Amino acid sequence: MSAKQSTSRRAPKKVTLGGAAKQVLLGGKTAATEGILLRYRDADTPYGVTRKTASQLAKTLGLTETQVIHAALAHFARQNLPRYEADAGPLTAEQKEAIHELQPSGRMTVKESLF
Q1: pLDDT at 58 (0 to 100)
Q2: CA 95 → CA 30, 66, 81, 111, distances in Å?
Q3: Of the candidates 40, 16, 39, 41, the residue with the CA atom closest to the CA atom of residue 26
Q4: Can you list the positions of beta strands (E) in the chain?
Q5: Could you give the CA distance from residue 3 to residue 51 in angstroms, rounded to a whole number?
Q6: pLDDT, tens only, 63-110
Q7: Left (φ > 0), alpha (ψ -120 to 50) or beta: where does 24 sit?
Q8: How far apart are CA 83 and CA 57, in angstroms?
């Protein structure tokens, strides 16, 4: 194979974005570096922020911009994702009877409804 022929595996390219000192690795992934691309918005919206807003949050909270993003995602997850597995639905008549049998007699009044 000559030097001009391409191989099946390309070397990752390093690209500097927006004159920033940070470099993004393109074309190669490892378990430790897999991630997503975050594009800041031109204006703050309900579903996006500008780089200026992210920087102000980081400075105010004493965090890095990456930590601010992780904190925001963690907060959004706590707000919107269930914290428990879905149950199997309403109790069967057999399950209700088993509960009634386990309760001490005379001490509690069993109601089928809370209202």
Answers
A1: 96
A2: 50, 49, 29, 15
A3: 16
A4: 13-16, 23-26
A5: 42
A6: 999 999 999 999 999 999 988 888 888 989 999 899 888 877 776 666
A7: beta
A8: 27
Give the integer Cα–Cα distance in Å for 98 and 92: 10
User: What single-letter amino acid sits at 115?
Assistant: F
CA dihedral 31, 21, 36, 11 (to 10 degrees): -50
Residue 115 and residue 96: Cα distance in Å, rounded? Answer: 18
Tokens of 102: 């386990």
* Cα-based angle 23, 12, 21 (whole degrees, multiple of 5): 10
Where b means 16+ CB within 10 Å and e means fewer, 50-68 reads eeeebeebbeeeeeeeeeb
Q: Token pair 């309900």 is at which residue?
A: 46
20-31 residue pLDDT tens:
334 444 445 555
| CA atoms of 20 and 10, how far apart (whole Å) | 25
In this prediction the pTM is: 0.48
